[in-house]
Specification:
The chain is of the alpha/beta class. It is built from 9 helices and 14 strands. Helix content is about 30%, strand content about 20%. Strands 10-9-8-11-12-13 form a 6-stranded parallel beta sheet, with helices on both faces. A 5-stranded antiparallel beta sheet has the order 3-2-1-5-4, with helices on one face. Helix 4 crosses helix 9. The radius of gyration is 22 Å and the shape is elongated.
């Protein structure tokens, strides 16, 4: 729901449907949300399309009545023209009207503050917690950085691009970034709060920039530290980092050359490669084609980027 906050806060009234429980295979995780606005407009999604129409109708009813509703959707044969999931799982969906407490929680979340909101329906209590978005710090104001910033923002990161060269580090060159900072990368990182959800991607290709910032980054318990470059650049970078006293255990955390082997070369394709590695590590994926695997498609996420789990509904 937090992802829908800007639009929800712009509406004078709305009904929002949230997935509060998932059993088995389902298209969307707990916390996925869909909302209906005052004129019947819809944003978000609670499934892969299987039950959207039914949830939309229910949300329209709740928008008019103000009475929350809790319903379950299970498996249905897709040839039976019945509402339900075709993937074999089931999910519970809570639909509620806007309220002062919900609006206050959405405003706090939009401001980047952690917040927890409580919902009640049919003698059940649900709590949804929203953490501030995880940070993606991109060092190096090059074309690749613009593409990484764009896909990082799309994935839900709060993106900062930093470079010491003011002629390159301008907001107009990186419109997708939440902030563009002109400073030496290592100095900015040293003065910046990070946690175990923060990802750092170094794209500078210049030892005078990337070695100091990597020394600083590898001294912190970050979620991800990656650096762009060829294998030769990587080998030289490791030698320089060792000469700076970086321990082997810390060097083992460095994802370099950063990204998965997708075969692309353009800035946009490189950004997809980097994002793929971030997502793979976050969820404990293999990076292999799903068509080559027989294991479950949806698995319990690894604790990689904790703050990425912005939706954590529980029931009691």
């Amino acid at each position: 729901m937090r992802d829908l906050a800007p639009t929800l806060l712009s509406w004078d009234r709305f009904a929002v449907a949230s997935v509060v429980a998932v059993r088995g295979s389902a298209p969307r995780p707990a916390g996925a949300a869909m909302a209906v606005g005052p004129s019947g407009e819809v944003i978000g999604s609670v499934s892969g399309g299987c039950v959207e129409a039914e949830v939309y109708d229910l949300a329209c009813q709740v928008l008019e009545s103000g009475v929350p509703a809790l319903t379950s959707f299970g498996y249905s044969d897709d040839t039976a023209f019945a509402v339900g999931l075709t993937c074999g799982g089931s999910l519970d969906v809570l639909v509620q009207r806007d309220s002062p407490s919900l609006r206050a929680a959405l405003e706090a979340s939009a401001d980047g503050r952690p917040v927890s909101v409580r919902f009640e329906a049919e003698d059940r209590v649900f709590t949804e917690s929203w953490m501030p978005p995880p940070r993606l710090l991109v060092f190096g104001a090059i074309d690749h950085a613009a593409a990484v910033a764009e896909i990082g923002r799309f994935l839900g990161y709060h993106v900062t691009v930093c470079d010491a060269r003011p002629v390159f580090a301008t907001p107009s060159r990186f419109p997708a970034a939440h902030s563009v900072v002109v400073d030496w990368p290592h100095r900015y990182l040293a003065a910046t709060h990070t946690d175990d959800s923060t990802a750092v991607v170094v794209l500078t290709h210049d030892p005078k920039f990337d070695i100091p910032v990597l020394v600083e980054a590898l001294s912190r318990p970050l979620a991800f530290v990656g650096a762009l470059g060829s294998r030769r650049t990587h080998a030289e970078r490791l030698a320089r980092l060792r000469s700076e006293g970086v321990a082997e255990a810390s060097l083992a955390r460095l994802r370099s050359p950063v990204g998965l082997d997708l075969g692309g070369r353009s800035p946009a394709e490189t950004a997809v490669s980097i994002a793929a590695e971030l997502v793979t590590l976050r969820h404990g994926g293999t990076g292999l084609p799903l068509s080559d695997l027989t294991a479950s498609i949806h698995r319990t996420p690894a604790r990689f980027l904790l703050a990425q789990r912005n939706h954590l509904p529980t029931s009691s």
